[in-house]
């Protein structure tokens, strides 16, 4: 081969490779530009001024139709300005229709803005609707692509859901936001609420081994006064709300209630108590309070000779927080005695709530069936066919371990010294 011709041939090959690389880079750049143009498009945008942000929804019944109440934020009133209030911070829109989506569409007739549901904080269902069944209304909330699943679902106990949303509140300008935050704090401090998101509720409703529960909420005080702006200006005797109980479901229907103490015992069993307060009687007279600082609950289901059993192991640490009696807390035997009393009290109260779920409601709200499913899937295939009847007579073994760790900044109460002074 001619030496010069060979060199030129190699140069052409290099140039050809370089040209191909350049063409690929240009093609990729055009693709990225096209994709960027599509991704940055604003074809589906909604301006903030065109939105009504919905914080809470209430569902009641009017005949055979659903009565929907939506609490929306009034932006002008939410922003505090000098010179006084600009009006109520929220507004309630109402509509009645056979379905959820139709009711929301009807609300648009009286609203100049689009109802935006992505910031929904609470869904309140009236007790009447809950007793008739909630599966139909939940289908809409599980399908809507704008809804996130991180909102709490509650039952308006003995009253209309609309009334819960209509209260003009203290400390928070939005009632729905206040209820949401109160639920969070109750979970951390009292352990008496069932903080249930949409996904949690749907999971319990379709599970054969666990029944659903929802927190009950009700108003205290005058309902008429609570809807007025003056309610938020009172320092006392104002209309408020409280979480009074936990609603127990069988399938998708509300069948009864657990009171506050029973609700806390239920949360002990399922391991949802982070902190709470327990009161004990002193050896002679008076009482003392313990703040529960650590709780660990383990649930196990077993099948022996074809018969299901459940075991609950509860470990708890507590600190003495308030003493209203004469007691020698500096003695180890005193603390051991208090541990035994608390264990005895918890064993009785936890057994009571289990018996109530079995005999009164016939509803496995604890998830003992799911525990058996996890430990013995083969046996569960047969048990789940008749689980309600099996649950009613299910033996549940309780194992409770209590440790009192601290007595505060002082061992004995000054009440001891005052008592000695009186005896002198």
TrEMBL record:
The chain crosses the membrane at residues 21-41. The keyword Signal applies. Keywords: Germination, Lipoprotein, Membrane, Palmitate, Signal, Transmembrane, Transmembrane helix. One of its GO terms (biological process) is spore germination. InterPro entries: GerAC_N, Spore_GerAC-like, Spore_GerAC-like_C, Spore_GerAC_C_sf. Belongs to the GerABKC lipoprotein family. This is Ger(X)C family spore germination protein. It comes from Paenibacillus elgii. The lineage of its organism: Bacteria, Bacillati, Bacillota, Bacilli, Bacillales.
């Amino acid at each position: 081969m001619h030496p010069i011709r060979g060199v030129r041939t190699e140069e052409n090959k290099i140039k050809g490779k370089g040209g191909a690389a350049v063409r690929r880079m240009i093609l990729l750049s055009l693709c990225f530009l096209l994709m960027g143009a599509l991704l940055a498009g604003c074809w589906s945008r909604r301006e903030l001024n065109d939105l009504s942000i919905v914080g809470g929804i209430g569902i009641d019944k009017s005949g055979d139709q659903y009565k929907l109440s939506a609490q929306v934020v009034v932006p002008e009133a939410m922003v505090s300005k000098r010179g006084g209030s600009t009006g109520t911070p929220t507004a309630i829109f109402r509509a009645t229709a056979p379905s959820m989506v139709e009711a929301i569409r009807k609300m648009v007739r009286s609203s100049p803005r689009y109802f935006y549901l992505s910031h929904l904080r609470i869904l309140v269902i009236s007790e009447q609707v809950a007793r008739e069944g909630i599966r139909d209304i939940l289908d809409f909330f599980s399908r809507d692509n704008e809804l996130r699943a991180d909102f709490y679902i509650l039952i308006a106990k003995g009253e209309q859901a609309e009334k819960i949303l209509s209260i003009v509140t203290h400390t928070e300008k939005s009632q729905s936001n206040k209820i949401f935050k109160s639920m969070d704090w109750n979970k951390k401090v009292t352990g008496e609420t069932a903080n249930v998101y949409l996904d949690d509720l749907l999971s319990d409703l379709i599970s054969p081994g666990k029944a659903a529960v929802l927190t009950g909420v009700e108003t205290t005080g005058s309902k008429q006064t609570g809807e007025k702006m003056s309610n938020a200006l009172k320092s006392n005797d104002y209309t408020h709300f409280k979480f009074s109980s936990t609603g127990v479901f069988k399938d998708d229907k509300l069948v009864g209630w657990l009171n506050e103490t029973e609700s806390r015992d239920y949360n002990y069993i399922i391991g949802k108590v982070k902190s709470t307060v327990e009161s004990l009687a002193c050896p002679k007279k008076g009482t003392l309070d313990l703040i529960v600082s650590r709780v660990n609950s383990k649930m196990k289901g077993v099948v022996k000779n074809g018969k299901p059993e459940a075991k609950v192991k509860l470990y708890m640490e507590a600190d003495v927080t308030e003493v209203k009696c004469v007691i020698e807390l500096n003695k180890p035997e005193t603390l051991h005695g208090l541990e035994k009393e608390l264990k005895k009290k918890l064993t009785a109260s936890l057994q009571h709530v289990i018996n109530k779920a079995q005999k009164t409601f016939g509803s496995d709200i604890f998830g003992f069936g799911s525990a058996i499913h996890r430990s013995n899937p083969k046996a569960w295939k047969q048990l789940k066919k008749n689980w309600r009847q099996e649950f009613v007579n299910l033996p549940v073994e309780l194992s409770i371990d209590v440790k009192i760790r601290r007595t505060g900044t002082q061992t004995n109460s000054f009440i001891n010294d005052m008592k000695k002074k009186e005896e002198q």
